[in-house]
Amino acid sequence: MSSQPNNIHIHIGGDNSGQLAMGDHNSQQQTTLINSQNTTAEASAADIATLRHMIATLKTQVAEAAPDDKKNAALERIDELEEAITADAPDLTTMDYIKRWFMKNLPTLSGAVTSVVIHPIVGKLVEAAGTMAADEFQERFG
Prior knowledge:
The chain is an all-alpha fold.
């Protein structure tokens, strides 16, 4: 048997993504990490308690700092935020809306709201909802 080189010709056009192997005796392996530790991204009971404490603290901040004409609306947004975060599948659209509402209406409190939205515990809850939700969370909130 002679060892002649194989003549391999390939042409790829258009928008493509993914893996490609050319030649003989190739193997490919792919590992997908949901989080940096490659562990299940589920929030513990302690995480949920911490989250609820953060939201209670945020409610107190809003009640103390919001002007009277916006206080009720702001507190309603915080209740909505809590529901959106703790839903079986976190509601990223509502979370984004609330963050933007505070930026527009009460910018002095928007940092406190954003710190809850981007907290690692919220990230765990979103990751537990699946890769698509985690990707959307990353796209919306960085």
